[in-house]
Amino acid sequence: MDVIAMSGVVKSYGDVRALDGLDLRVERGLVVALLGANGAGKTTTFELLLDLVRPTAGRVEVLGGPPGAARGRVGAMLQSAGLPEQVTVRELVRLVGRAHPRALQVHEVLARTGLGTRARRTVTALSGGERQRLLLALALVGQPELLLLDEPTAAMDVLSRRAFWEQARAAAAGGATVLFATHDLAEVAAFADRAVVLAGGRVVADGAPASLALGGDLEAAFVHLAAPAVAGGGHR
Predict the structure, then answer these.
(1) d(C-alpha 124, C-alpha 128), whole Å
(2) What share of the chain is helix, strand, coil (3-state, %, to 5)?
(3) Quick one: which of 27, 103, 119, 182 is 20 to 30 A from 199 by CA?
(4) Residue 234 — φ and ψ, nearest 5°?
(5) Residues 74-128 pLDDT 10s
(6) CATH number corresponding to 30-53+70-231
(7) Do 116 and 107 meet the contact criterion of CB atoms below 8 Å apart?
(8) Distance of CA 178 to the CA centre of its chain
(9) Closest among 77, 78, 74, 108 to 93, alpha carbons compared
């Protein structure tokens, strides 16, 4: 069964088409990178998978059904996610865990994400990288079958990034599927099983990261694939 199945998906905002016939299928247990210039349609793809918006046309399925039916089985880290400032890290992870029938123990998920020593701190006292790790803890606490990560390591240092991807890989080894949006091509080469490039609201390349590289240069490949859509104007 495909964990993600999107077929002929169109999403319009007035006269702007954020997605223009997107076809995407993702199998269970893979770590898949979603690449694209700003405005290529990455954010809209995540919003559709999380049932935050509905498609104008086409079909979207998550874990074999409509996205709204899979909410308890999906974990997400979004750039736009807000956090309550005055609760502690432990309190917030416990609260989110209560919404899931097979949640991890709070101390376990905090240890996994390197937040064990920050458990009693309020959210407002966390650094940018620690907030990212807290968002990961909130995404992992329910032991989701699908993890959706929107530029998850943007505020992390090198060691935190490595620890983050160890956790993402561990989740995939346990049967979860990971879809992450990024501009960091080194992360794609190091951690993704598959890379999907969006341009103009549709898939323009899809395969193992090494197979997309021109002469071994993934960055050159990305620029080559995305350039036509960027020149013609982007989407959301």
Answers:
(1) 10
(2) 40, 30, 35
(3) 27
(4) -100, 180
(5) 999 887 667 888 899 999 999 999 888 889 999 999 998 889 999 999 999 998 8
(6) 3.40.50.300
(7) yes
(8) 7
(9) 108
Encoded tokens for 223: 């620029």
With contact defined as beta carbons under 8 Å apart, do 221 and 208 qualify?
Answer: no
Its pTM stands at 0.86
C-alpha 149 chain-centroid distance: 2
> Residue 221: pLDDT above 80?
no
pLDDT tens digits, 141-168: 999 999 999 888 876 778 888 888 888 8
* The two three-digit tokens of residue 103, written as one number: 């949640």
pLDDT more than 70, % of the chain: 89
Enter the tokens of residue 70: 């899979």
| 3 state DSSP class of 97 | helix
Q: Is residue 227 very low, low, confident or very high in pLDDT (cuts 50, 70, 90)?
A: low
pLDDT value of position 210? 85
Q: Check: CB of residue 10 under 8 Å from CB of residue 56.
A: yes
Contacts with 223 (C-beta within 8 Å, 6 or more apart), sequence order: none
C-alpha span between 32 and 4 (Å, rounded): 11
- Is residue 108 within 8 Å of residue 97, measured between CB atoms? no
Domain ranges of the chain: 30-53+70-231
Reduced to 3 states (helix: H, G, I; strand: E, B; else coil), residue 139 is helix
Lay out the sheet containing 146-150: strands in order across.
Answer: 74-77, 146-150, 177-181, 31-35, 194-199, 202-207
Per the model's pLDDT, the better-predicted residue between 222 and 149 turns out to be 149
At 104, list the tokens.
């991890």
Helix, strand counts (H, E) of the chain: 8, 9
